[in-house]
Amino acid sequence: MRVNVDFLRRPAGWLAAGLVSVLAMTGLASAQGVLERAREGGKVTIAVAGEAPYGYRGPDGEITGEAPEIARAVLARLAPDAELSFVTVEFGALIPGLRDGSIDIAAAGMFITPARCGEVAFSNPTYVVGEAFAVKAGNPKGLTDFATVSDNEEARVGLIAGTVEYNYALVTGIPADRAPLYRDFGLAMDALKAGEIDAVALTALTAKDLVDGEDGLEATPQFYPVLDGEQVKGYGGFAFRKEDRDLADAFNGVLADFVGSPAHLALVEPFGFTEDMMPDMTAEDLCKG
Fold first, then answer.
1. What whole-number distance in Å separates Cα of residue 201 and Cα of residue 174?
2. pTM score, two decimals?
């Protein structure tokens, strides 16, 4: 399997002739379908969002994480001759990138929600996880969940654009002036260190990873948000264009035997995923809400 890792670059403008060519190529690729292209040895563009431990660039410069490693294992079975090209985009650009054809698979641990299911197709989930906050050491404002932020008029929580945490904060009643949005994880963590906010809302695994080795920061214990009286858990999977339903189905065929197996656990445990995080719901269940 040939692997080419590069950042996603989008030119500021297109010459007319180039635009026509790109549109023609995009139309051809869309008509062919990603699964067929992959099986013929073509390129498959897989996007991560730079969020450890789900999908990120490691110290050696290679893209790694729970989702990219599973994607490599699945595609090795589905299309062993495919050329895998990994790119990094902002989290909020994943679904637009799928829809405009610039990426083929989002391998970023994206939570499967009814709203997102209206825009893209999902594989079955590969894990379930709760939430946590990254906070200053000692958690000065005692923030343990979204309700404690909502109840404290002096508390501010940073959110990453495009993530479910924005919805959690909104439903919990945290006003926008106390829930600033940041383009990426690094900017939010910088704001926390600078004292501009009191917490960053993240998945429990991401919070733990981001504070690791950071003096003066810690992660709160994991919690499950309660929205409209119901406890909410995060189930993450792979996202595809709706037109590539056959690719999602093929992924699910491999995942059915793989997720929870010894081989799978050995692959993801280095990233903090454990047997008690194996999912108990399907994408169909989660898309219904």
1. 12
2. 0.82
pLDDT tens digits along 146-180: 999 999 999 999 999 999 999 999 999 999 999 99
Query: How many residues are present in the chain?
Result: 289
Report the distance separating Cα 288 and Cα 21, nearest Å.
39
d(CA 231, CA 28) in angstroms, rounded, equals: 44
Residues 6 or more apart whose CB falls under 8 angstroms from that of 34 comprise 44, 104, 105, 240, 241, 244, 247
Distance CA 289, CA 286 (A): 5
The two three-digit tokens of residue 191, written as one number:
């704001």
Domains and CATH numbers, the chain: 2-128+235-288 (3.40.190.10), 131-231 (3.40.190.10)
In the predicted model, is pLDDT for residue 112 greater than 70? yes
